[in-house]
Amino acid sequence: MSPNVPLLNDYKQDFFLKRFPQTILGGPRFKLGYRAPSYIYANQIILFLMPWIWGGIGTLLYQFGILEDYYTAALSGGLMLFTAFIIQCTSLHARNKSVTVERMLATDILAEEDEHEFTSCAGTETIKFLIPGKKYIANTVFHSFLAGLMCGLGTWYLLPNRITLLYGSLGGTVLLFIFGWITLCIGEYSLIVNTATETATFQPQDTYEITPLMRPLYIFFFVSVDLAHRLLIMFIVSAGTVIISYFIPNTVGVVLFMTGLGFLLSLNLSEMVFSFKCRIETKSKALPSGSDKQFIWKRCFFYIIVLVLALLETGLLHHFAGFSQICKTSPQAIVGYLLTILLIALWILREIQSVYIFGVFRNPFYAKDVQTVTLFLEKQTGLMRIGVVRWILLDLVSPFAMIAFLSLDSSLQELHSVSISVGFTRAFRMVWQNTENALLETVIVSALHLLSNADVWWNKNLDTGIRLLLVGIIRDRLIQLVSKLKFAVTVLLASWMEKKRRKSTTSLCIFNIVFSPFVLVLIVISTLLSSPLLPLFTLPLFLVGFPRPLQSWPGTVGTSACLCPDTVYYCQMIPSLTTALQSAMAAGSLGLLPGSHYLGRFQDRVIWIMILECGYTYCCINIKGLELQETSCHTTEARRVDEVFASAFEQEEYTRVCSVNEHFGNVLTPCTVLPVKIYSDARNILSGIIDSHDNLNEFKGDLIKVLVWILVQHCSRRPSIQDTAYQNEKMGKASLTAPPALNTSPQTESSEDTKSINSETLDDWPDDNVFGDETTIKKGNQEKDQLKAFPGIHLPIPGSVESRVVDDHSIGTAPESSLYKAVMLGYPAVDKGKQEDMMHIPLMEFSCSQSHLLSLPEEWTSSCLPNSKIREMSSLFPEDWYQFVLRQLDCFHSEENASNVVEDIGKDSVLKDFYIHAVMTCCFSLFGIDNMIPTPGHILRVYSGVLPWSLALDWLTEKPELFQLALKAFRYTLKLMIDKASLGPIEDFQELINYLEEYENDWYIGVVSDEKWKEAVLQEKPYLFSLGYDSNMGVYTGRVLTLQELLIQLGKLNAEAVRGQWANLAWELLYATNDDEERYSIQAHPLLLRNLTVQAAEPPLGYPIYSSKPLHIHL
């Protein structure tokens, strides 16, 4: 990476310097980027200080003893309300005022888009610029009232006497008074004058004008704490107590309600409702079938049993068990000991499932060298059994043990406060929602109660439910704090390790070390707010980001992605990957914490997995696929990912038992490998095969054989032909066929005839231009355009057959004048009458009645080539291969005397002539008339569907089905040539049949850009092959995709590192509009994985090529 990569380019720097002060001050624009009249700035200052003026008047009246404090607040609030209405009405009048629109010539094409022309201090343009106004009248009224209320409360809150009594310092009073009123002015300006752009934006358009309310909301939070916190809390407590006491007066009923409700809310109810809906709507295509239905009912039956047992246990223990304060011998203490043993056992069983313990020490029980699926499954058999034991302890034993602990608590004897209801409702739900965390919290509460004195406030003033709630909050914040500290240290190390930018980042590193206490305070604040730690431009300059949900992005997951041809490979692997994740999560190899991120790697594919939510025996995830076209930054980070995984999963047998993770400082920690059914991608250079003279010499002969096999197979599988033949036989009709030109009267071959055809073929394409067909196509088009010069004359394409309608009642030979006419090429001139006599073709019957089962479609039997050329090339037709292919057909094996039927069909010369004509015409279309050896460039062009123009090609393209069959035969022949060169020559016809049947059943041979290639991938064809050309190396390449079960390496990412980098990405793109593709914050870094993290962000900020809908995994 160049050391001159800018954080912001020059244009964005100027833009940012204009926007940032506007955000700090709440909306005033004191830097416009162009010359503006002085009254623009003066008006903004007056509007900004207006709340302070009215508040200052009220403050003076209070300080002089003229008004009481509440009258002072009412006066200031009323004046501000009146001012707000005046401001909004002025804006509304300016917008509704009609003005004359004149077109003005721009003198500077580079002028700012937001440049305005001001005419006077109170002109319409000035008012529109200063006060844009509200979209809705309701917001005009609401925001004005809110402005008055905030000014009144702010005046009362900032009275100097109250501040002095609170802090007892004159200096503190002055500072708080000044900065407090500046804060109020900022909030008021954004509410009633003009709103600044926020530094984090979820939606590009603020439809309902929510943004102006943000700053006043923060002010109300601080002011309301000192005004009405006691009243508010007492109201909530009283109302909650009345409601609970009124509806559930019995303690047993309350406990049963908490248990049942907590269990139901921890289930995946949305998916269950959808399953039942599909069950009722039997006509729905989304209806699960077979084993899926049975699995759904089994799961519902399992949930019902667990719910009944939980309710029975809770009710019986609460009703019959004796209640006493917890001590070392009480029943609740005994259950606490059992929970401690369960926690230790589950922790051990979970840690040995992953490759690293604590992410640092290598697990001695994990397989050292994992290369193949078979070897991995053999070595993981013991760990999988341990995983089953862990699942039983976690999902069946632990919840019932914790329910017993809660049911035996003495706090449930009398429900007289909301705190008990809230605490225990949350506790009974967490038992099922997140069993592992709930178990840890319960053990901590039990241990603290046993080890501490009974008179401590923790035991005396707090009930068990509130203790569990506090421990849960502390646990969550501690985990975030550790992750944020690790992320901050990683950013510092990443900045220091970049040698090219070390000079520019050294000062920032020193700054962080010197002011480390303040940095720690920022990290703690970010942790308490559960907001991302934002590293500005991913440098060690930390800010507290805006609080946002764990999934970081708004809207429905999986609705947007940057789709491309490579997306299909991720679509194919999702079902198998989901199954593998199910096993790993159930065994404990992967954590089940919402907001966690995992990175998977296989060959050139990078998989990003995010846990959206978790519950009892289920988990919801989102899977993203990153681009396969690796850029330099992508390659650098992908190489480091490979190194991290290689050091964990590809160790030698003699490695130390408990080695240390060499990449502990990386944001990626290896977890496990997953066996997934996926395509492996192999690319080979075909030099020495496709350009071999011997192979090319055999190519045309092999193509004729493959064409014969494909056409026979295709016709034998056409049900319409068989049905027509059956109906004709049943009605007693004789089938009439028109034989191809091969059986017509002999005609002398002339050199001009051949020369004319050869002049219209394109066999002389240069090999150095693989797809250079522009000039040849133009030549063909010019010849076609010449025919348009004679609109009054009907001129068929030279060499084509003009068919006429045959009378249905004609039997035997039809009239010669009503049958086929062939127009030969114009060299040499032939008498028209003589030509017609020569080209009359009688209708012929098949000699075998079963030949209709293999008959070609009628349009495929028309002629477009000289008879002489057809007769010349017919000698190349492999009659013995034709007979062998007929004997291999399955459609006659069920009939009596099948061998005789096949023999009779083979002797049918009319049917054979049809196949000779179709096969040879297809060959002419693919190669041209000249019997020359094809070149590698010609083979690549035809393989890609770019055929040389000729009359035969026009004939072939008019028959799309036959064209696709010919192209398919050509591609099969190329694959056959490669296999013969790699595996050896073919011994007999049966081996060739085996090759072709394998291609037909197990392979898709085509072009990567074809739609059928995507369909083959989704259908999970075992093998796919494509031919290509590497212009950089100047070689022909072959690409083979093989579907097999392979291992995907999976690691866990630091969730706070991901959230922090995504927060910076949102800040840069949405606020600073820093979309430079070469900006510093997306440059590759091995520790932070910046480029991969940016790719995985939700579009339009990121650009994953695949993003799944929420996937529900049942554990």
Q: Report the mean per-residue pLDDT as an integer.
A: 78
3D shape: globular
- Helix/strand class: alpha+beta
Estimate what percentage of residues fall within beta strands. 5-15%
Query: Helical content, roughly?
Result: 40-55%
Number of helices: 38
Care to give the gist of this entry?
It is found in: Membrane. It contains 38 helices and 15 strands. The chain is globular and about 125 Å long.
Q: Can you describe this structure?
A:
- The protein is an alpha+beta fold and 1115 residues long.
- It contains 38 helices and 15 strands.
- The strands form four sheets. Strands 5, 6, 7, 8, 11, 12, 13, 14 and 15 form a nine-stranded mixed sheet that branches. It has a two-stranded antiparallel ribbon with strand order 1-2.
- Strand 5 and strand 6 (605-615) form a beta hairpin.
- Helix 2 runs antiparallel to helix 3 (69-96).
- The longest helix has 34 residues, at 214-247.
- The two termini are 45 Å apart.
- Residues 100-113, 237-242, 282-289 and 724-842 have low confidence and may be disordered.
